[in-house]
Amino acid sequence: MRAVYINSVGSISSQKTFDNSQFLDEIVSYEDNIILAVDPNYKDYIAPANSRRMAKGIKMGVVASKIALKEANLDNVDAIITGTGMGCLKDSKKFLSAIIDNDEQFLTPTSFIQSTHNTVGGQIALGLKCKGYNFTYVHASVSFESAVLDAKLMLENNEASSVLVGGVDEIEEYTCTLHKLINHIKEEKVNTTDLLGSKTKGAVFSEGANFFVLSNIKQDSSYAQIVAISTYNTIKSTNITDLAGTFLKENDLDIEAIDLLVLGNNGDVTYDSFYNELSCGVFNKTQQVYYKHLCGEFNTASSFGVWLASKILKTQKLPEVTKLNDIRASNYNTILLYNQYRGENHSFTLLRKC
């Protein structure tokens, strides 16, 4: 089987990550429990007439994909694979509200057409005139990992040479209200720079889009090699150590081979124990970073973690704001990422320097 490489990245998040010439040089901090993505100038990427008809999630996905394609020097790809947990929430709400308000009559189709989960992938394909494989995974907080797995299998078996893969989710007010009622979102506003010090239930919710051009052809500008990725549904926190060891053993590695551990801590006092089991246990002598104080929590937030790890491997620089401990690695060759959400949908991703 052929190796799979990350040849380019494109990110829209609550940080100014849309500029690939920078790497978290300027940090935006928030005092809130819901944070929005920092918008680039969408007119630079999307015609205003088209942009007006697009929900924010679609715009974020389209722009992030264009940034990734431009960096890879590609006009088109063989396949487009998208992951999203909640899809285009705002247009879904618009359509459902219109059904009620208009007594199920005289409904305009626009919101319905743009409310489906595969709208982002479809809009990207229309813009590129890409008639290749186009698939959207809706697997909650492993939606992005599912998309990457699909692309990885295609590239390893030489069924494609370049695949655009991404994760995208948007914020919607009513949905956030429901999440607050069931304590998925923190009751109090917190300073995101001190997210792990909150010691309360719930997370800081956000939105974003992170896209990558994956290929089985390595370029001089490639960021990293995707060695392996695995997902799991429900496991006990005490079993995480054994699971991590098994995952590494399957890839002929041990704990000492990991230069950097990237964790998805979101400040939820109930579920961060899964991360603590690794950070305070077998990886206590490994340098560790986290990222959800920068991008917030959403179903495809792990795609921001892959963006962060990819940039670290390519630049060999580690932003101070991401550090979880004071251990320093001499260089970054192998990075392990671990993510879960509320004790479910666990994932391990292994990246290696090209």
Automatic annotation (TrEMBL):
Give one Pfam family: ketoacyl-synt
Question: Which Gene3D superfamilies does the record cross-reference, listed alphabetically?
Answer: 3.40.47.10
- Beta-ketoacyl synthase-like N-terminal domain residues: 45-215
Source organism, top-level taxon: Bacteria
Q: Which UniProt keywords apply?
A: Transferase
Q: Which residues form a coiled coil?
A: none
Q: Which PANTHER family match?
A: 3-OXOACYL-[ACYL-CARRIER-PROTEIN] SYNTHASE, MITOCHONDRIAL (PTHR11712:SF336), POLYKETIDE SYNTHASE-RELATED (PTHR11712)
Task: Identify this protein by name.
Answer: Beta-ketoacyl synthase N-terminal-like domain-containing protein
